[in-house]
Write a structure and sequence with these properties.
Helix content: 25-40%
CATH class of the largest domain: Alpha Beta
Strand order of the largest sheet: 2-1-5-3-4
CATH architecture of the largest domain: 3-Layer(aba) Sandwich
Structural class: alpha/beta
Oligomer: single chain
Number of domains: 3
Shape: globular
Distance between the termini: 63 Å
Amino acid sequence: MANTLFINGKECEFTDEPNLLEVIRKNGFNVPTFCYCPDLTQFGACRMCVVEIEGRGLQSSCTMPPEAGLRIYTNTEKTRRVRKIVLELLLANHDRECTTCDKSGKCELQKYAEEYGIKNIRFAKKKESDYLPIDNENPSIVRDPNKCILCGACVRACSEFQGHSVLGFANRGSKTVVQPIAGKHLSEVDCVYCGQCQAVCPTGALTIKNDIDKVWEIVTDKNKKTAVQMAPSVRVALGEEFGLKPGENVIGKLNAALRKIGFDLIFDTNFSADLTIMEEATEFIGRLKSGENLPLFTSCCPAWIRYLETQHPELLKHLSSCKSPQGMLSPVIKELVPKYFQGFTKENLYVISIMPCTAKKAEAKRPQLTRDGRPETDFVLTTQEIARMIKSAGLDLATLEPEPNNSPFGQYTGAATIFGASGGVAEAAVRTAYEFVTGETLENIDFKPLRGVDKNSRTKDATVDIKGTQVKVRVVSTLKEAEKSLKEILAGKAEFQLLEVMACPGGCINGGGQPRSCNDSKIKEERAEGLYKEDRELPLRKSHENPDIKKLYAEFLENPGSHIAHDLLHTHYKNLFENSYKDLKK
């Protein structure tokens, strides 16, 4: 039942909104925030969202629940004065080299300073001697403590999404900082590289490790050849950087932009998502028959793999040996492109992948994913980085005419596309596993119980009847939710046979390298719907129906699970906890 209150004189309804801020935004008004994210607990640290309430004075709108009859004013002389003071205090303690900051143009502090007309700062500027060193050793994330405004969003994201608490507050008063435990570098702690900390960071305190210049050097070198691949969820998020709606599929436009930039060959990671299903479904069926090492864990998410390696190495036997789609397509490209295209050799060919995920940068550096002394994936660019490359090349993605990708690693099915949303990998695997086992056509292929990307659907269970065999599937997003399932397994209480885990809330559509969306949780749903829409519209919706996949097996890989397939498409993982423990003992 709806109640009413008044915002700036307008009578407004509210129902189950958790705070006044959500009611204000729902009714077409807005107030600035730094520390607020709908998917995280309310913190009330920054005080930018203060509103004036009749009879109650100034209140933080992100922490106050709505009440019937309240009269709220969002833009009064008092609220503006408080916000300007907050901004001046933050800027006085901030590294203001904005033009060279990776978040320039997208920084919330920069945005509000402009909106509120902050020209003069009355408080003393931070001393040069008080500046802290930049932490640049993590393969995925850069931490600049001099740009931190202590909003605590990163601390909550690490704890509430991943249950990990790699970041925390240290010291007191003016010496307070956010840092990894004991002041270590991010590379020295059990960071899983998911990038959710930087995704919620409103300033340049946490940013993506930037590889744009390195990729430009390769693209413009006439002696080098390039092949690029892009993940499923990139196509439904990249357009946001160019004024298009979340969920709009821009894959054809992206192909056109990449050619104009100078990439030689353009493939699609969707192709290897189909390839992953061929191998993973085969592996799953084998485990079902033997009853060994169940449940099978999916292995597409590198942050999830890192979590197992550091926190639960005793469960690594459950992890699929399949490489991720990125990890599969890169060696296939390097092995076969020289056979298909003149002028390409293993020595001059560089593979660049475009991913929604900061952890993919770390994955590409894994020693297991090298071949002939070189990384199989040479560089990983996030969605944000490729958007910058497109803009710096003078291109407007929105106006480009769509172009196809290259063959033979370009064709894909709907099953591959839905990899980008939480539940998509499991759904794609079930579509193929059912037909592999039964030899019959699966008519109803939409497993809607496995879908959903909001914070109320981070754990989903479904049962699939495969000719009388009841296969129970569980899908989780965020490592905090995954930990609950792992405890069930360790306690011998798990009833599911397949566990899909994505570290980012909602899956890859909300990866740490995607355009910033933490202030609007609906964006995840719109991106997911963009993927499911393409799945519905594609002529082929099961991975094993992909003709290019069939051709690859017939001409090169022989069959799923073959010796050559294992050599190229599978890998192994390490007990990183054991190594760390040995180092500590030394």
